[in-house]
Design goal:
This protein is of the alpha/beta class. It has helices at 3-8, 17-20, 23-37, 51-54, 63-72, 84-93, 117-131, 145-153, 164-174, 184-193, 237-246, 260-265, 272-281, 294-303, 327-339, 350-365, and strands spanning 41-42, 44-46, 59-61, 77-79, 99-101, 135-140, 157-159, 177-181, 201-205, 210-212, 222-225, 251-254, 268-269, 287-291, 308-311. The radius of gyration is 21 Å and the shape is globular. Bound molecules: 1,3-dihydroxyacetonephosphate and iron/sulfur cluster.
């Protein structure tokens, strides 16, 4: 089911009473419900969430860390403060008695929406005509459960930005070439780091159903799905040139969801976890421009007053869909659990979950 279908379902719109409540009251209600439910409740919060949500998270982390946390919790209720694909992953990795809730069903991911299962099946069929049985499908976890299942069913796996290198290396021990969904930039940056030249990478365009590649297809090692993160694509070569001119001793660190050109000109690139750890280890007085989501960048700035830290793009906004999870939606989700009338439950169909788990298990084994 896609996000549009989900929001059309009942119980997906925040009741007006939560808009009328004061922040103080909402916070004290959240605290009271957390105390009441105790170990029965687990709130994972992705690093890109707002501070008002992170304040109540039982665990914070990137996609990989939160998938690991979801896979090991014994709580009956998991209120996932992140986006839809993360909550689906949590549902796949928990047992049938554990309930996963996404506080706002509109918290999707525009990148995950750039590949649907029908496009993927069509692409695979066409690509097989060119490449035969030489491809392994890999998908960034930022994808629907159906695409994870598609990969699992064909011996492929999910990857996150934290373990993409390991997973791509592994994939080449299995097959001659990979199809990497849905983020062309993470796929390209990772393959390039592993020594695969850009000339050996083709792009699959799911809108035109065509392979974008000039030359002999037998030289293609990596087929990149033409998807991207609308947040990370906002960091540009111009941002870097401007900064190099105005503050030449600034270190530039970006997420690998940024374009190849941006990664190339930056000093370092790495996952959310890598960025956080790099800044933590950096000496006092050092200067950093960060190319990733703004809720996280603002939090890093607050946590490191001894360092000079800015966003690589001075006009950057937070990820709009991550931002949909806010204090009122969190409270709404928690009160629905308390009342025994759970809203916004995320459930992945059993046959999809069964195949998706193969793909996720490979990723978790290579964490
Ligand atoms: P990571 O959590 O793997 O760094 O991914 C970033 C992201 O865009 C999550 O939506
Ligand atoms: Fe999706 Fe990008 Fe937002 Fe992550 S930051 S949830 S990849 S749109």
């Amino acid at each position: 089911m896609n996000i549009l279908d989900l929001v059309k379902k009942e119980n997906t719109v925040l009741p007006a009473r939560y808009r009328e409540m004061s922040t103080t009251e909402m916070k004290s209600r959240v605290i009271a419900i957390k105390e009441k439910l105790g170990e029965d409740l687990f709130i994972p919060g992705h690093h890109y969430q707002k501070d008002e949500v992170i304040e109540f998270a039982d665990a914070t982390g990137d996609s990989l860390q939160l998938a690991q946390a979801a896979g090991s919790t014994t709580a009956s209720y998991i209120v996932f403060c992140g986006v839809h694909f993360m909550a689906e992953t949590a549902d796949i990795l928990t047992n049938e008695n554990q309930v996963v809730v996404l506080p706002d069903m509109r918290a999707g991911c525009s990148m995950a929406d750039m590949a649907d299962i029908h496009q993927t099946e069509r692409a695979w069929e066409k690509l097989q005509k060119v490449f035969g049985d030489t491809m392994l499908p890999l998908t960034y976890v930022n994808s629907t459960a159906a695409i994870k299942a598609f990969c699992g069913e064909r011996g492929g796996a999910t990857v996150t930005s934290s373990n993409a290198h390991k997973m791509v290396e592994w994939a080449f021990t299995e097959k001659e070439r990979i199809l990497f969904l849905p983020d062309q930039h993470l796929g390209r940056n990772t393959a390039f780091d592993l020594g695969i030249p850009l000339e050996e990478m083709a792009v699959w365009n799911p809108i035109t159903d065509e392979l974008e590649f000039e030359g002999d297809p037998s030289t293609v090692k990596v087929i990149l799905w033409k998807g991207h993160c609308s947040v990370h694509e906002k960091f540009t070569v111009e941002n870097i040139k401007e900064l190099r001119k105005t503050v030449p001793d600034m270190n530039i660190i970006v997420h690998p969801e940024c374009t190849r050109e941006v990664v190339e000109l930056s000093d370092q690139a790495g996952s959310t976890k890598y960025i956080i750890e790099t800044i933590e280890k950096a000496p006092a007085g050092s200067k950093w421009a960060i190319g990733t989501e703004m809720n996280l960048v603002n939090r890093i700035i607050q946590q490191h007053p001894d360092k000079e830290i800015v966003s690589l793009n001075p006009n950057m906004c937070p990820c709009l869909t991550m931002n949909r999870i806010d204090l009122p939606h969190l409270l709404w989700a928690l009160e629905s659990i308390e009342d025994g009338n759970v809203i916004n439950r995320i459930t992945v169909e059993e046959d999809v979950a069964k195949n998706a788990i193969y793909a996720l298990e490979k990723m978790l084994a290579n964490a």
